[in-house]
Structure formats: structure tokens, C-alpha cells
Amino acid sequence: MKKVLLPSLLLLLAACASEGGLRTTILDGTLIRTGTADPCLVYDDGSYYLTMTGASKLVMVKDSSLARLGSDVHPLASAAVIYDSALDSTVTRLYGDGAVINGTWSPEIHYFSEEEFPGQSGWYLYLALRQQYVEKNGTGSSRNVRMVVLKSSTGRVDGPYASPLNGVENQTQPMLDPDGSVITRWALGPSVLRVPGGPCQGTYLMWVEETGRGEGLGKFYQKIMVSHLASPWQLAGEPGVITTPTQEWETHGSSETHPCVVEGGTAVYGDDGEVFLTYSGSGYWSDYGLGQLTLLRDGRDGYHDPLQTGSWVKYEGNPVFSSADSDDLRGAGHGFFLRDAGGARFFCYHAYPFTDGVKAKARNAYLEPYAIDKEAACPSAPEGVLRMGKTGTATTTPVHTQIEFKTQGPSIAKSGTN
């Protein structure tokens, strides 16, 4: 009989002291929380923080136990609202008077140090806002999407979040171009890239833009962009293109109205200076999965310019993670990466439960370990291959598989690594 994991079975099975004050949490399954899309999971100062998106609001659940983040313990009705677009008067700067938001997409929480941005250090919340828009044929549309940022006014991950300029709660700061003007291009999925050394050392913002909307199949596609940051809310120069859809799997699900997808670029760092980028390819409605790129090095301590497309090499064996052949999930993607207090690597993602050949309508958040396989290095993966999911298959781990996560260590969310 196939084992079915219910939220109430997401239990803490063991907690034991070990060297260095670490505590090992054993989870009965990879499921973290039901009804969760675009998850961002942060561990800091002994607590876990999980965000999830909604049509007009962004909410967060917090607990000292990873196993207690499930919806049976923290129902959505009791989750803390960290952003409500209906209360955000600054939305008019993006879309004009009377604008209604019906998508709070791809939130990510990042910490910036004083060294990176003097006088502006703290926790920042990045997300994209979609304007409610109806095409001439009466169908809903994602034609208008823009990036915004908020800053925690308390120095805690759980906020409250406010404008980084005036401290007014629940007011977003639109992302700005180098000249100080609001970015009005279609853009979503903001995330942070840190280049650790060499002439290109610094803090960058990555995001997704689209091109060719309305131009037909094959001409409508997304591209992952990158730019140096002048501040947490302003670009420092002209952006570059990291990648566009170039592999066959990235085109799955595309049509006259759906783009070839490369989105959600998220940096992953190795212990020896490796800088990888994972991204979601193909549509979430299709064979969604994660691909890998590697930032080429210039010597051991330097790196090629991340603004140049040629500085990134795409793995020929992509996707490195997928649920297309899974027994219990479909549409797995949108990875967010973290380490436990013992340094072990994990990533949180969302997927649709898949039971008896039927895909559920709502997504859940899952957690799995990953590793960097240096022995698999090849011309298209010069620093090694990210081993994600069931060993050797790049397929999602069965949902009931036990995993271990170590806690009780120093803050691991402020280091800029994962």
C-alpha cells in the first residue's frame, strides 16, 4: 500500500544533542506545508520563517521547530500578513490610480550587511506585483508585472516590513533604474547574487524579463537579467542577460499565449568559491524543473563578468531536478536554498501533489537535501553538477522519505551563502 503523508504526520521524531550544541531534527517526509506557492524558507537565530504568496497578500509562518510549520499547526487564518497590496498606497507609482493587485509573486528575503550597503543593512523582502488586467478577449492576463522591495523595520526576519526610504509599514519601494526612475518593464523573480572575489566582486540583483508577448509561438520567451546594485532598491548600471531559453526542455508548455520559460534565477554557492545559478525552466503547468548554470572563473579567486551571457555556461544535462517522472508530484520548481546549522545543504520548492494520475489544484512546499558533485565536472558544468532529488535520477525524492536537519547553531541566513 502506498504511504500517504498527511500534514498531521509531519512530526518531530527525534531531537538529540550533539557536538557543538547542534540538534538533529528528523522529519517524517519532505512535505513542509500544504497550500503553499513560491515558498521562501529562512532559518535565523533559532527560528524558521516560511513565506507564501496569495492573490493580494503575502503571509509568513514562524516556528522554532521546522516540523511545526505545517498548516495543521499554523493555519492560514492565523499566519502573519507581512504585505497587503490593498493597503499599499505606493502601488499607484507602478500602475496608476485605481490599480488592483491580484498576484504577489516570488517573494525572497535577503540580509545585507553594513559592508555591502553602509547605513542600509538589514532584512529585505523582494517580490513582484501583478496588476489585475483583462485582455480584449475577456481573459485574464499577466501583462503587467513589476518588482518592489520592503525592509524589516525591526531588524527581525518577521518584520514588520516597510518602505526602506520612509519606514512606513506596508509601503513598497519600486525597484529603480540607475537614473532613479521606476522600472516599468515587465519583471518578476528578484533574487540576489554575490560574486565573492576579483574585479567583479560585489552584490547584484537578478530578475526575469520577457520579450515577444503577442508575437506568436517561439518568439515569446523569458530571459534572466542581472545588474550590480547601488542600493537594495536601485540598479547601479545597465543590466546584462544571463540566459534565454536555448534547450529543448525549456520550451515545454509554450504556446501563442505562454512563453518559453526561464525564471526564478537563484544563486547557489560551493565551499571552494563555486557560483552556480539554478532557474526554473518550462512552464509550471508543464514539465517544470530546475536547470543549472555555472559562473566561469578567471583564475582561482576571480570570476568572469556576470553581466556577460558568455560568462555563464549552461549544463547540457539539464534539468538537474524535475517531477516529470515522479510517482507523487508534478510541477516541481522554484527552488530557494539554505543550509542547516551543521552546514548541510537543503532547498525548499513547491509542487503539486499527484495521486492516482490526478494532479492537485494547489501546491505544497517541500524540503530536500542537495549536494555538489565535483567528480561530475564536464565542459558544460566546469565546477561540478548539483545533485538534487533522488540520487542519480534528478527526480523529486518520494514525499515520505525521511530527512535530517540540524539546528541550534549560529545564524546561517546572514552569510550570503547557501
What descriptive keywords fit this protein?
418 residues, mainly beta, Tachylectin-2, Chain A, six-stranded antiparallel β-sheet, five-stranded antiparallel β-sheet, 1 helix, 30 strands, 43% strand, globular, disordered N terminus
Write the SSE topology.
Elements: E1 12-17, E2 23-27, E3 31-33, E4 40-44, E5 47-53, E6 57-63, E7 80-84, H1 92-95, E8 101-112, E9 122-131, E10 145-152, E11 161-162, E12 173-174, E13 188-195, E14 202-211, E15 221-231, E16 234-235, E17 240-243, E18 262-269, E19 275-281, E20 289-295, E21 297-298, E22 302-303, E23 312-314, E24 321-322, E25 329-339, E26 345-355, E27 358-359, E28 364-373, E29 385-388, E30 403-407
Walk me through this protein's architecture.
The protein has one helix and 30 strands. The strands form seven sheets. Strands 3, 25, 26, 27, 28 and 29 form a six-stranded antiparallel β-sheet that branches. The protein has a single domain (about 5-405), classed as 5 Propeller (Tachylectin-2, Chain A). The two termini are about 35 Å apart. With about 425 residues, the protein is mainly β. It is about 0% helix and about 45% strand.
Strand content: 35-45%
**CATH architectural category:** 5 Propeller
The count of helical stretches stands at 1
Q: What's the number of structural domains?
A: 1
CATH topology: Tachylectin-2, Chain A
Radius of gyration: 20 Å
Coarse shape: globular
| SS-derived structural category | mainly beta
CATH class: Mainly Beta
Q: Describe the biggest sheet?
A: 6 strands, antiparallel
Tell me the distance between the termini. Answer: 37 Å
Mean pLDDT metric: 88
CATH superfamily: Glycosyl hydrolase domain, family 43
What proportion of the residues is helical, as a percent range?
A: under 10%
Low-confidence stretches: 1-19
The overall strand count is 30
